[in-house]
Structure formats: structure tokens, C-alpha cells
Amino acid sequence: MIKRVNFQRHKPLAFLLLAPQMLVLAVFVFWPAAQALYQAFTVTDPFGQHSTFVWFDNFRDILTSPEYFNSIYRTAIFSTGTTVSAVLAGLAFAVLVDRVVRGKSVYRLMIIWPYAVAPVLAGVLWLFLFHPIYGAIALMLKQGFGIPWNPLLDGSDAMLLVIVAAAWKQVSYNFVFFLAALQAIPRSLIEAAAIDGAGPIRRFVSIVFPLISPTTFFLLVINVVYAFFDTFGIIHALTQGGPGGATDIMVYKVYADGFLGLDLGLSAAQSVILMILVIGLTAIQFRFLERRVKYAQ
Amino acid sequence: MRNRLLGAFAGIVSAFAASVAAAAPIEIQFWHPTLGPIDDALKQQIDSFNNGQTAYKVVASGRGTYDETFNAAIAGFRANKSPHLLVVIGQGTQSMLLSGAVYPVQDLLAAEGYKIDWDNYIQPVLNYYRTKDMKLLSLPFSVSTPILWYNKDGFAKAGLTRPPVTWDEMGEYLTKLRAAGFECGYTSGWQQWVHVDNYSTIHDLPIATLHNGLDGLSAVFTYNKTAVVKNIARIQSWVADGRYTYSGRQGSSATPAFASGRCAMMTHSSAVFSSLQASAKFAFEAAPLPYEVGTTPHNSLIGGGALWVLKGHKPEEYKGVAAFLAHLASPEQQAKWHKDTGYMPITKAAYEKVKAEGYYDKYPQQEVAITQVQRGTPTLNTMTVRLGNANQYVAALEEEMEAVWANKKTAQQAMDDAVRRGNEILRRFERQRGN
């Protein structure tokens, strides 16, 4: 049974214990979020000399721009691609490492490694390998396999590149969680199924996957949030939203308009839209996906 | 007991007296972007100032990229902790001018009693950072202009003996270089700076109304109605037949494309000289940017960082700031900076000094930028581009150019779209400043 602590009779103590955490959240999360919300309704210069309250003008400017709708569309492709490939690759590696007998820790270390690389650095690394003029892998693709690889001008190539680069960063994280979940499955269950004549695929589908479903669900939520919020560094280093807006995802536009363009109102309005979108998406995930998750055996 | 106290007191008094005699120098905070290999040259400039006198000490602090440095300065300004000196990229001039945080360099030097003959400066370099009544706002610092770099060994292989002069000739050269085995004929760094801004200034064409924004914030872009469109269309055709290879935005990707020997020609900042010297394994030369047949070329447009003096500091500190700026502008420092970094000298005296040393006989590449910015007489079209929110409108223009290279739009469609998006961005800049 799960152990529970009951604070019913000591409510003040419960709040007292929560207070430090709430204070940290208030200062570093709620206050900035409230400021962003306010900024979304103002037009202001970066030095803070002029600030005008403009109601919904920033939202109107964004939602009437064809480039923004392109950005929403690109975000959908990018987030789906990144989440699905990062979760699947993490799962695949975990299942394989779980079965490895010799050198397990070496594999484990090698797969966790990319997580330690800073996003911008990862971006630069990928650019140098895949740059169509001097990238080693790009030249191999072109000369070895005759693939006309050019992420600088071909939007699909660019999208593929940023998805792979963003997913590559996240595979390590997913791998660690999946491996831990796999190792928590009692061997007796799997052995019993094997004795009953179930093959490895059947065992995975009927026993292993349902048992790791809470982890899978958790990772799905985390990876969607990662793809939506945490990937502007990779985009900045690799494509800067190009070519022609093909990888101009929403969070990159927030970053570019806010930190590079210094149009704080426009950037804040976009981040409010993005926040609403991700909250909605997470709510949907909890509403419809979580039903299939089995938390207790 | 009493003796000991007295002794202690005497000690304190003498220590105090000593500290007054060797008064701690007044510190001057100087925020700049980290420029990689050039940081060494900057350190030497600052050391020579700090070691040459005892009253002031310049404390330099590298703050990352130009954008990061600017963000740090804004945060500093809002918290009342601005540095005295700040390096800002030229495109940020309009933002700085309207920030309310600036003490114009020309006013500062005049107030501190420096009698400077601004005519002794290279005019097109100063012009970029001047107001319309010719007051200098900031001291040019890391300044360059795009020029044409070419692979001399490659030219010899293709039977070419001199650089191309006009864009038509450039096209013919590229065909020959391709036939001689170059997969990539020509690539460019900072393509918007080269193909739109500099193409416009060299041909005396307006980029935007109101003299490229110099006369007011309500300027609108007009480059979709000039020969720029023809220029973009020509490069589109060169992309299609392989003569031009797009190597990415900004400047960092074009340099290795040329230095690795894959591209025979490159238009890029004159300041890539030192990095080409370090990485190219072939003889390379430089030439002025080509122009259209039948036109007389005007000066090219410069770009790069300038030193801004910020408001809100003490009078005695501004004395030190002025002394430091005067030190940087001295012919010795300018000449050394130019040779060390590949950036342009800002005074005629520094240029003459370097020339007299015979430096350009050995490195003729370094002189090209200086002669190129002095071609023709400057006009109000060629003086500067004084438009706000440059990071955003440049990004929009880069996107549209990519759409042209990928054959998704015609040159005219893309330039129309870039102008529409750019104008929306300029109008937001106006609103941000309370208009």
C-alpha cells in the first residue's frame, strides 16, 4: 500500500511546511508570469521610457499576421515529431539495455551523455555535421548516397534536422526513466508469462508496456512541454526559424521578438498564447490519456 | 596603554595619508561583446591606457554576443547600474538614440575640452553614427564593410588575372570558375547587408524613405521599388544554375565555405581578414564590391559596433571616459587595432600611418575596405540606415530571401512581402517610443 500522511488535524502545520516552496514559486514563477500577462497588454520600449496600455492590440497584431499561423502549424509538426521520436527512441534504448548482459554501465553512460550538452552547443555541433557546404555527414549523404541534402533552403530537411537534434537531447532523459521503470517490473511476472509460452513481443505488449504506462504518460507530458518551451536554443543555433519560416516555432518567435528584437509586449502576448495552448494540451492529455494509465498493480 | 593607543592612532593617520597620496584610480566600467580572438587586442588597448596614467582605470567586462551585451545594458539601465561605456552594434543606433540613456560622444569631448577636428576622420565611417545635423553620437569601434574575397589560386586555374568589377562580369567569372572545377562559385556572409543595404548605397538608391530613416521615425521601406529587386532576381538565377550557394544567415557559415576552398568567391565583412589568414590554405585576395555596368559606384555602408557613453555618472568620471576615448582615437592605437583585428581605422592619420609603414604592400586586402567606403561622394542615401527594430526586420528579410533562393517566390513577391513585414515592424518601433 502507498504510505499516506494525514494532516487533517494539523492544518496550520501543513501550510507552514508548504510555505517555503510556495514562496520560491511565488517569486520565481507566479510573479514573472503575472508581469508577462501585464506586459502582453502594453507596448513598451526596451529601456522602459514609454509604456502604453493598449488592451488587445498586441494580440491583434499577432493573430492577423500570416507568419504567426505558419508558426503554429510548424510548432504542431515539430512538437509531435520531437515527442514521438524522443519517447520511442528512449524506450527502444531502455528495452535493449535492459536485456544487455555485459557492459551495461558503458551503454548506460553513453546514452545519458547527450543530456549534459548545452542546447546551443548541441545546435552548433549538429550544424557543423549537417551544413550542406562543409558538413561531414551532409557531404556523405550527397556524394555517397546522392541525397540532395540542404537544410538551408529545403524546409523539410531543416524540420527533420531540428526534430532529430531536439529529440537527441531528450532521448537520454527518457531512457533513464524507462530503464528504471523496466527494472522495477518483478522478474517473476515475466518468467511466468514465458513459461506460459508468451514470446518477447507478446510479453512486452501484454505485461511490460501496461506496467510502464505511468512512466510513459509522465514522459509524454514532460516531452511535450520540452518541445514547446525548451527548444529555442537549438533552433537559434541551427536554423533561426528558417529557411523561409519553415522551423519558426512559437517559442522561437517568443525568444526572437523578446530577447533579440526587444519588443517585450509582442513577445509577452505570444508567450501568453503559448501558455494557454500548453495548459490546454496538458489538460487534454490528463483527461483522455491518463484513463488508460494503470498506477497500481 | 596610552602609548600603544597613540601608536595605533599614528598608524591609522599615516595609512590614511598614504592612501590619499596614492588615491585609488577612478574606475570606468566598459561593457563590450566578447569578440573571440579580438579580445586580446582590446585588452592591449585598455592596458596601454591604464598603464599610461594613474588617475583612471578602465575595467572591461565581456558580456557575450552583441545582443546579450545590449540586454545586459538595458537591465543595468533599469536598475540604475549602467556602465560608463557600452559597445552597441550599428543597427542598434536608433534604439540607443531614443533610449534617453545616452551622452553623445561629440558633446562629451567638447565639454571636456578636447578640440577635435572631425574632418580628419574617415567621413563615411563617422556618418553612419551621426545625427542629421552631423553630430557624432558614438565612437566607431569594431567597424567593417563588406568586400569581395576571392581565391587567387582558383582564379589562376580558371585563367582569370584580375577581380571582376561589375555584377555582369561577376556572372561571367562564375561560369568560368565553375568550369574550372569549383562546385560553389560564390557565397556571401550577411546576405541582407550585402545584397540589399550595400547594393543600395553603392548605387545611391534609398532603402527607406526619409533618408533611410535619418529624418524621422515614420520612414517606410522602399527597396522593393528599386534595382535591388533585379539584383535579387539575378542571384536567384545564379542559385538555380549553381553559381551562387547560400551558406546561411549572419556571417559565421560563409567564412568556412570560402576558407575550405569550396567556394571561389565570397562577399563578406572586411574584418574576416584575420580568420581567413588563420584558416585558408591558398592565396586569397580582396577587391571592392562589384557594381552595375554604366553606374558610378558610391561609398559602401559600414556596420559593426560603436562605443556609446551612458548618462548618469559623475563629472570626474566623464573626464576619464573622454581621456580613454581620446586614447583610442590616437593614430598609434587606431593603427594597431586595424592591423590586429582587421577592423577599419577611423582617422585619416591612422590610415596614412599604416600606409607609410608599407603595411598595405604586404597585405593589400586590408586597404580595400578603406578605399571602398571613400568611393564617390556620400549622399543622404548612402550616409546611414537609421531604422529601429533592426533585428526583427532583418530576420523577416532574410526569411523572404530564403524563399527566393528556394524558388518559392519571385524576387518581386519576396521583396514586397519583406517590405510589408518590415513596415509593420517599423510601425511597432514608433509605437514603442510613445508615438
Question: How would you sum up this structure, described in words?
Answer:
- The complex is a heterodimer of chains A (297) and B (435).
- By secondary structure, chain A is mainly alpha-helical.
- Chain A has one domain: MetI-like (MetI-like fold, Orthogonal Bundle), CATH 1.10.3720.
- Chain A contains 13 helices and 2 strands.
- Chain A has a two-stranded antiparallel sheet.
- In chain A, helix 3 packs parallel to helix 7, helix 5 packs parallel to helix 11 and helix 10 runs antiparallel to helix 13.
- The longest helix of chain A has 34 residues.
- The mean pLDDT of chain A is 91.
- Chain B contains 20 helices and 9 strands.
- Chain B is an alpha/beta fold and 435 residues long.
- Chain B has a 5-stranded mixed beta sheet with strand order 2-1-3-9-4. In chain B, strands 6-7-5-8 form a 4-stranded mixed beta sheet.
- Chain B starts with a helix and ends with a helix.
- The longest helix of chain B is centred in the last third of the chain and has 22 residues.
- Chain B folds into 2 domains: 181 residues, 3-Layer(aba) Sandwich (D-Maltodextrin-Binding Protein, domain 2); 201 residues, D-Maltodextrin-Binding Protein, domain 2, CATH 3.40.190.
- Chain B is globular, with a radius of gyration of 24 Å.
- The mean pLDDT of chain B is 93.
- Chain B is 48% helix and 12% strand.
- In chain B, helix 15 crosses helix 16 and helix 19 packs antiparallel against helix 20.
- The chains are: A mainly alpha (297), B alpha/beta (435).
- The interface between A and B is large, with 37 and 46 residues.
